[in-house]
Amino acid sequence: MSDLSAAIAATARPLLVALDFDGTLAPLQDDPSRSRIVPAGVGVLARVAAAPDVSLALVSGRALHDLHALAEVPAGTFLIGSHGAERARVTRFGLDRDVVQLTDDEADRLAALGARAAQIARGKDGVWVETKPTAVVVHTRLAQDADADEAETAALALGAELGSGVLHGKDVVEISVLHANKGESLAALRAELGAVAVLYAGDDTTDERAFAVLGDGDVGIKVGDGPTAARFRVASADELVEALATL
């Protein structure tokens, strides 16, 4: 932790602090609606956002409205939802959001994806489907291994047939009608803000896209187990928040 704290303290400014939500700031829950930032995290994020020349962003696979409802973040925080297909900034009065416009073809494919994904989940306990403004997600966290494997295989095949982008994360397959990933979204926000350095933390395979765009002066933090391109690793959301307090 001391090496990580030193690296965070030495980051150049302007700095973009971009963080995944589930599994990173909030411990993973079987019921996603129960996810909350660890208690110490709310105050630490407020102090991070108030630091000179520091911008705060959450970069999540969640739909934007869910992310905003669950994430207790200060005004000025950028929210990137659906892996980058949705974006907004938190204000004192709500969300200042970019409007997502689908073409007729994309809207038709999204409807077809929803219907086909529902067929995949039918009859499989613990498999359920979430529909986002630009994507359909097949969740398998609560399913038995055989049902989960069958559902994920079918969802990947459906994505190859109808999707513009497919993301396979922890117990989820997300099929989007738009091309978006966390790496491209992070790079775009960095360029927009003119950030000299980026600190990014995440726990899932989808976060590896973000780690891949980091440079030598940046800080990548993997939360939890598993292979990663990140330079640093912490065991839990609590340890991540402790490290962020260095800012």
Q: What do we call the CATH homologous superfamily of the largest domain?
A: HAD superfamily/HAD-like
How many structural domains can be distinguished in the coordinates? Answer: 2
Named CATH architecture of the largest domain: 3-Layer(aba) Sandwich
Written as H for each helix and E for each strand, in order along the chain, the element string is HEHEHEEEHEEHEEHEHEEH
Characterize the largest beta sheet: strand count, sense, and whether it forms a barrel. Answer: 8 strands, mixed
Report strand order across the widest sheet.
5-4-3-2-1-10-11-12
Q: Considering DSSP H and I runs of 4 or more, what fraction of the residues is helical?
A: 25-40%
Number of helices: 8
Named CATH topology of the largest domain: Rossmann fold
Give the C-alpha Rg.
Answer: 18 Å
Instruction: Report the average pLDDT across residues.
Output: 94
Overall morphology: globular
What's the total number of strands? 12
CATH class category name of the largest domain: Alpha Beta
Termini gap: 14 Å
What portion of the residues fall into strands of 2 or more residues?
A: 15-25%
Q: Summarize this, please?
A:
The protein is of the alpha/beta class and 247 residues long.
